[in-house]
Write a structure and sequence with these properties.
Number of helices: 6
Strand content: 25-35%
Order of helices and strands: EEEHHHEEEEEEEEEEHEEEHEEEH
Structural class: alpha+beta
Radius of gyration: 19 Å
Largest sheet: 12 strands, mixed
CATH superfamily of the largest domain: Fumarylacetoacetase-like, C-terminal domain
Number of strands: 19
Distance between the termini: 46 Å
Number of domains: 2
């Protein structure tokens, strides 16, 4: 099932090229805002699935092109993002497992604008990632039981502002939790429609040029290990998003007016615009291109 939030954060199900609203079916889920409603549906999905299926089967819906899509998980309780979790053709074994938290208020959705902050970052880059959405409370989960706790999957982009924080190292908080730096969507696809999450092609284009193109099979720490490790550190809650990492070789600078498109097999295509009121410019090249010349990975600022 492909779940969406649309217009004034109504809940819908995508069926072919239409969307069927199911807000009335789930309106009795306790909530005070749209984020809580979706998180509540995720937690209680088993109780409501039959009613939702019946509504979808009996309603003609409206054209998907006629609605304004919103983030399908507008307010996850938390977002846990894996750091350096792909082998990228250079590692014979995974880097030490590590992660950081990204502010839930950074979430935006399909058609929205990723705004580059006024902070004097060395460069702004995009990281295409498979996002897992947690379905039920998870503490100290065994790796073998991981699938019991994953509700579904989303396209996830980790917008990153490099070079912020106190020397000698970047700080994850200012670099990763900037306003609008967590685009997700367009759909939340339930796990039953994604039988092989460890073998999905991830692609991202900037202005029509393919920049990232890799497979989730290249993860250093696989999905079962991620669920096990994260849930041993912190309790995961329904609606939490786990971003599983990226292949850094396709990262490159973002500029004002850029168009971003991202697609993972079966999860739809996420489309965004980039806005930078300061009109900063970097050399337009990827880390892979710089690496081939033996240069530092991040593009250089022009002005």
């Amino acid at each position: 099932m492909k779940l969406v939030m649309f217009n004034d954060f109504r809940v819908g199900v995508v069926r072919a090229n239409s969307v069927v609203e199911v807000t009335d079916v789930i309106k009795d889920i306790p909530h005070i805002n749209s984020g809580q409603l979706m998180n509540g549906l995720i937690e209680r999905f088993g109780q409501y699935k039959a009613k939702i299926d019946q509504k979808v089967a009996s309603s003609p819906g409206v054209p998907l092109s006629s609605v304004l899509l919103r983030p399908p998980v507008p307010r996850p309780p938390k977002m846990v993002c894996m750091a350096v979790n792909y082998l990228e053709g250079i590692r014979t074994e995974p880097a030490p497992i590590n992660a950081f938290l990204k502010a839930p208020t950074a979430v935006i959705g399909d058609g929205d604008t990723l705004e580059l902050s006024k902070e004097n970052a060395t460069v702004f880059e995009q990281e295409a990632e498979l996002g897992m959405v947690i379905g039920k409370r998870a503490t100290k989960v065994a790796a073998s039981d991981w699938h019991q706790y994953v509700f579904g999957y989303v396209n996830f982009i980790d917008g990153s502002a490099r070079g912020l924080g106190a020397p000698p190292m970047d700080s994850f908080f200012p670099s990763k939790s900037q306003y609008t730096s967590a685009p997700i969507g367009p759909y939340l696809v339930t796990a039953d429609e994604v039988p092989h999450p460890q073998n999905l092609q991830v692609q991202l284009w900037v202005n029509g040029k393919l920049r990232q193109d890799f497979n989730t099979s290249d993860m250093g720490h696989k999905i079962p290990r991620l669920v096990e490790w994260i849930s041993a550190v912190t309790t995961l809650l329904p609606g939490d998003v786990v971003a599983t990492g990226t292949d850094h070789r396709g990262l490159g600078p973002l500029h004002d007016g850029d168009s971003i498109e991202m697609e993972i097999e079966g999860l739809g295509r996420l489309r965004l615009k980039v806005r930078d009121i300061y009109q900063r410019q970097w050399v337009r090249e990827t880390r892979r291109e710089r690496q081939a010349r033996g240069e530092p990975p991040q593009a250089q600022r022009i002005f």
